[in-house]
Specification:
This protein is of the alpha/beta class. It has 5 domains: 4-100 and 194-281, 3-Layer(aba) Sandwich (Rossmann fold); 112-184, Arc Repressor Mutant, subunit A (Orthogonal Bundle); 318-381 and 547-644, 3-Layer(aba) Sandwich (Rossmann fold), CATH 3.40.50.300; 384-522, PCRA, domain 4 (Orthogonal Bundle); 657-721, Thrombin, subunit H, CATH 2.40.10. Strands 9, 10, 11, 12, 13, 14, 15 and 16 form an 8-stranded mixed beta sheet that branches. A hairpin with a 3-residue loop joins β19 and β20 (708-713). The longest helix is centred in the first third of the chain and has 20 residues, at 165-184. It is globular and about 85 Å long. 41% of the residues are buried.
């Protein structure tokens, strides 16, 4: 039999994986090593050489797009349809199974699937039905709890509360919510997997049927599986153990949403006799980029171990830029992209990565001002994000009560008991009288046309806006924005969402405060324009610029997590600062290894050129940060890095003395220089970032690793110099 079309295009290790004998196989597929090729060619090999029917193969991926691509590539290899083959996501395959076995799963035949918003409403109704305070027990928090427990395979009755009142209440909500779902004949996304697992586990005949049917299980991105997905796979694999798992423990970056790197690390324990094959040849990046990534990830303990290599060549050194501030960093990035374009490159070659969504604002502003089209991959531009639009709507209504669009957006945001019926009544009055919604509301209240709770709620909202306008009248713009965000109730509202999404929304609101603290450009021909008007106009202009389409030639902006699976000739990883990347929270909670894996993923997105950058001073989340370089930079061998400093003619912002970056001055009598590393008896080690004063009153500003930045008087500090700047 001629199998050249299946194996000729493969390298030796890929061929070894594709043609391996049946049994448990763990394919350690490094970044850019051709794992999709291996998966699809494995299916073709099983079918055409081993004689395995597509009916007997199940392939699991993590996205519908990946599943579609896998099916198309397999059919291209085979030259025929593989209709009977089950290929899809965990949720998709579980849904298919439950439709076929709805009776055994104790579901109605026409059961409905709740999307995220449907589930939130169902949880909210449950909380109200239990007579609980929605402010204390937010629906989104309860929803996150329920989904997390389902992902662990736990029903409400099997969760131990350990005497914790909060846990007890959450269990009560979970139990009542599940009863409501049963009555409605509905399942949420997490329920699809849990119900499928329980149905297989509790019906021996069905389990034996599928174990006999699916002789070969193939799983992509195995390092991203959570507890219930792994249990689902182990149950289906049964005693035969013909599980072909493809993954990379070094790219396990979703622990925060339940992924367990232990599933891949302990694979050979759960499946005795496992054969491990490593795909280490990278077809994407230069040797310099791969060597840097290899050196970085070696600092993680408990790895399965592999070493990426390429025959592409060394390529350019990695450039590390230490900027004065976030504006200087953004300017540098835009200039390098322009250099790339002038050299014949494309805008779509470039990707800008960041750890936190809030970092995108300054980068977006720099791109916008330079006229460079860009797209936020997998997300919204800063000024298009829901929480930002909410805050801006409050500002606009305070500035102009006749703004009907802003009125409608925030009249019941956060929820204050103003329903659709009341809003419709206000709209009708406004239309008939030819006035704004604000004036219509005042007329309705004056005429006592609203009764009870609705009248109280609308009156309370109008009183709030009037008070916010009076309180912020003479405030500086950033103080005004901060006051509005806090006293409107938006901050408290989003703090109720204790998920990562809720935390990101809070960070974005804090970043909006920081944006308001930056100089506002007022047109020369409009000298009477207020700072608030100018700020709102700028926000509207930036939000109004249409997001670049996928097919359009534009720069890509994205978080590090969103970048996984993508590749670009030119990559910028911004914010390489201790406390930002790695994040302070991850360091404190023992998550440094996942942060390092995230950095590894970011580095290996680059094909030809990689830039790393930091800002020595960064205004982020509305606060000033004086930063030391990320420890990840020191873990990259110096022979792979070239460091460049800001240009001497860079315009530096006017800052307070505690924020100012100094050149070496003649009046420096501290004996220390900016950049020197020192040790203090109480505060530990830190970096000198500023100094001022003379004689006995000379002071030095030090950013300590453990306690943050502090001013110390030199006469009493007793500092030990650890290096010469």
């Amino acid at each position: 039999m001629d199998v050249s079309h299946i194996i000729d295009s493969l390298n030796p290790e890929q061929r070894k994986a594709v043609t391996a004998e049946a049994g448990p196989l763990l394919i350690q597929a490094g970044a850019g090593s051709g794992k999709t090729r291996v998966l699809t060619h494995r299916v073709a090999w099983l079918n055409q050489v081993e004689g395995v029917s597509p009916f007997a193969i199940l392939a699991v991926t993590f996205t519908n797009k990946a599943a579609g691509e896998m099916r198309a590539r397999v059919e291209e290899l085979l030259g025929s349809s593989v209709g009977p083959m089950w290929v899809g996501t965990f949720h998709g395959l579980s849904h298919r199974f439950l439709r076929m076995h709805w009776k055994e799963a104790k579901l109605p035949q026409a059961f409905q699937i709740l999307d995220s918003e449907d589930q939130r409403r169902m949880v909210q109704r449950t909380i109200r039905g239990l007579d609980l305070d929605e402010a204390q027990w937010p629906a989104r928090t309860a929803m996150w709890y329920i989904n997390a427990k389902k992902d662990e395979g736990l029903r409400a009755g099997y969760i131990r509360d350990e005497g914790d009142p909060t846990e007890q209440q959450m269990i009560r909500i979970y139990d009542a919510y599940q009863t409501a779902c049963e009555l409605a004949g509905a399942v949420d996304f997490a329920e699809l997997l849990l119900r499928a697992l329980e149905t297989l586990r509790d019906n021996e005949e069905i389990l034996q049927h599928y174990q006999a049917r699916f002789q070969h299980l193939l799983v992509d991105e195995f390092q991203d599986t959570n507890a219930i997905q792994y249990a689902w796979l182990r149950l289906l694999a049964g005693d035969t153990g013909n599980l072909f798992a493809v993954g990379d423990d070094d790219q396990s970056i979703y622990g925060w949403r339940g992924a367990r790197v232990e599933n891949i690390l302990n694979f050979d324990i759960d499946f005795p006799g496992t054969k491990v094959i490593r795909l280490e040849q990278n077809y994407r990046s230069t040797a310099t980029i791969l060597n840097a990534a290899n050196a970085l990830i070696e600092n993680n303990s408990g790895r399965l171990g592999k070493n990426l290599w390429t025959d592409i060549g060394d390529g350019d050194l990695i450039t590390f830029y230490s900027a004065y501030n976030e504006g200087d960093e953004a300017r540098f990035v835009v200039e390098r992209i322009n250099d790339h374009i002038h050299a014949g490159g494309s805008r779509s070659d470039a990707a800008i990565l960041y750890r936190s969504n809030a970092q995108s604002r300054v980068l977006e502003e720099a791109l916008f001002r330079s006229g460079m089209p860009y797209r936020v991959y997998g997300g919204l531009r800063f000024f298009e994000r829901m929480e930002i639009k909410d805050a801006l709507a409050y500002m606009r209504l305070i500035n102009l009560p006749e703004d009907d669009i802003s009125f409608e957006r925030i009249v019941n945001q956060p929820t204050r008991g103003i329903g659709d019926k009341t809003i419709t009544q206000i709209r009708d009055v406004a239309r008939e009288a030819g006035v704004s919604l604000w004036h219509a509301s005042a007329e309705i209240l004056s005429a006592n046309a609203l009764k009870g709770r609705a009248a109280t709620a609308v009156g309370g909202f109008m009183t709030l806006i009037i008070k916010l306008r009076a309180d912020t009248k003479d405030m500086p713009l950033n103080d005004m924005v901060e006051h509005i965000i806090e006293h409107s109730g938006l901050l408290a509202h989003y703090k109720k969402d204790r998920t990562d999404k809720g935390e990101a929304r809070i960070e974005n609101l804090q970043e909006l405060i920081g944006a308001a603290g930056m100089p506002v450009e007022i047109p020369e021909d409009m000298p009477d324009m207020s700072p608030l008007d100018a700020f709102l106009s700028n926000a509207a202009l930036e939000a109004g610029e249409k997001q670049g389409d996928e097919w359009e030639e534009c720069v890509q902006l994205m978080t590090m997590h969103s970048a996984k699976g993508l590749e670009f000739p030119l990559v910028f990883i911004t914010g390489m600062e201790q406390g930002l990347f790695p994040s302070q929270r991850s360091v404190e909670e023992g998550g440094i290894e996942e942060e390092r894996r995230l950095c590894y993923v970011g580095i290996t997105r680059a094909e030809q050129k990689l830039y790393l950058s930091m800002a020595e001073h960064r205004k982020l989340y509305g606060r000033d940060h004086f930063n030391t370089v990320s420890k990840f930079i020191s873990e990259i061998p110096s022979e792979h890095l070239q460091e460049i400093r800001p240009r001497l003619n860079t315009t530096r912002p006017v800052m307070q003395p505690a924020q100012r970056r100094k050149e070496v001055r003649e009046d420096n009598v501290t004996g220390l220089s900016v950049g020197q590393r020192v040790r203090h008896g109480k505060f530990g080690e830190g970096i000198v970032t500023d100094y001022e004063g003379q004689g006995a009153h000379a002071r030095v500003y030090i950013n300590f690793e453990d306690v943050g930045a502090k001013w110390l008087v030199m006469a009493y500090a007793n500092l030990e110099v650890l290096n010469v700047a």
